[in-house]
Write a structure and sequence with these properties.
- The chain has 143 residues and is mostly helical.
- It has a single domain, classed as bsu32300-like (Four Helix Bundle (Hemerythrin (Met), subunit A)), CATH 1.20.120.580.
- Helix content is 80%, strand content 0%.
- The N and C termini lie close together (11 Å).
Length: 143
Amino acid sequence: MASMILLTKLDSLQRCLARIVSKIPPGVEMLQRDLDLQDIIALNLERAVQVCVDIAAHVVAEFNTPAPATMAEGFDRLQELGVIAEETALRMKNAVGFRNISVHEYQKIDWLIVYRIITEHLDDFKDFARQVLDWSNDGDRNA
């Protein structure tokens, strides 16, 4: 069974994704005009990425290996350890790139890209969560 820390983080990720889904506008134009909508979506995307980074750090620590030097490196480590697929690691590293722009250069956000993320790439987070949970449950069965 997955640790309580992992389950808590996965629940937090699910809440962020649900909040985003509940706010997806019918078109990019609405997102480009609505500052409140931008804030809600950007904040929850940032949180979702951060939760995934935290999950990566937590799982990597279970292997008694050095902590990743960067957020993106955590996903490389998970892939190397067989926790997530290579494609998932790449997608999560891309998500870190978005998070960094959102946090550090908010005024440079391209809302068309954000709209594509929320309409075409939220499953990346779900795939990540599923793979981590599968790994955790497999590890428990093999223990």
